[in-house]
Amino acid sequence: MSTEKKSFFGVMKSYNSNFWVASMMELFERWAWYGMFAVLALYLTGSTDEGALGFSHIEKGQIMGVVTAILYFLPIITGVIADKIGYKLSLTIAYVLLGTGYYFMGEVTSFTTVFLVFLWVALGAAMFKPVASAIITKNTDKSNSTLGFGIFYMMVNIGGFIGPAFSSTLRTQFGWKIVFLQAAIVIGINLLILLLFFKEGERIKKEETIGEAVLSSIKNIWEAVKDTRLSVLLVIMIGFWTMFNQLFYTLPTFIEDWVNTKALHDSIAQVSPWLASFMSGGGDSVNPEMLINIDAGAIILFQLMVSYFVLKMRHVSAMITGFIIASIGIGITFYTGNGLFTILGIVIFAVGEMMTNPTFSSFIALISPKGKEALYMGTYFLPIFLGNFITTFISGNLYQAWSDKLSLLQTEMAKRAIEMPEVTKEFSKNDYFAAASEKLGMSQNEMTQFIWDTYNPNKIWYVIVAIGIITIIALTVYDRMVIRPKEAKEL
Fold this sequence. Notes:
This protein is an all-alpha fold and about 500 residues long. It has 3 domains: about 15-200, Up-down Bundle (Growth Hormone, Chain: A), CATH 1.20.1250; about 225-405 and about 455-490, Up-down Bundle (Growth Hormone, Chain: A); about 405-455, no CATH class. It has 23 helices and no strands. Helix 2 (about 15-45) runs antiparallel to helix 6 and helix 7 (about 145-175) runs antiparallel to helix 8 (about 175-195).
């Protein structure tokens, strides 16, 4: 036992200051990002009388899906630029872009300006993303890299948990603008950490220009995806990321529209008043982002346990099992308007995510030809990029047509030939709901239940779970035709 403890502390002592600086910067960057992103769907589509923007779900889908897709494509370019100009300068540029971008996101209100400022934020995030992991790679070796990346991934989830928790309380107490100001301040802390504590290591300088280096990176990606085994796997993984994205793009607005979070708050308060207050930001209803945040909380608590369990499984078996569990979980969250089932579904989904996401990187390495592991790993972000584009239409167009409470209520009022004012900045969504409730002679809860029973907005779960089922089938076929024959040859 003492030997194991010495071994563990020996590994912990082996990490240099740059490793810990990068890990801490990752925590703060994720705090800022998820503190904003976990509530972004609510802010974009929320009622204007509460300080939100009142956009349609189609506009929300375009802003979140297209911009985030671009974010995950850009590291192919920004990673090369960082290698050329140095990590410290790259991170300085990233933090200036992120800090200013987050601040101005709370100041602009039109679709075009919000899209452009969020794109500005995405550019900063794309500058940061490859550098943080590259610093960890350069400051670990075979003896400590496994634990090192485990610590790094833990920082991701701690930041991803703290950010929405702070945003939930802050927006409830002080309004929406404070969420974006919080993100800007946290990025400012990161800039101070960078300038005061990060030491730039020696760089290998190559003769090629930035343009030549970017072109070479794109050629390398193309060379990798020409391998059918890899390209088919990447296409299959688009399904996972499309399904995963629903957690942040679609579920918050679904909870806001259809889940009675006041009843959930009261149920939790009977067990723990403190927890109910924490999850409601001090209000009387559980905030949707705090339910979404259960995913990050579960990962922090159970990732090591799940990872240990997965070690005993084949990579592809772990991924298939993870897909099955995640599909069940996401289906439950959209199937019912009962908040307790929402919580259950998110926890189940988190278990599937824990089995699938970390395993994907190892799986790419498994099918990579010897000597081309780094080349193949460069394709990791491609399915995330494409998954975000597809999510644009599910979270936007499909949700608007099938599940948006305002749209369905407008359809019902038109069907009954009841005249209602158009929703504008002067006559908000909340005003519309109140007026419709009065004209229908129903309470708000009764009206919501009536629209649910009449239009079945939860039917969107058919599409989301179908994506998961198709992914499971495709991966199973892929295992039979590609992976098992490869494993048989290596025996």
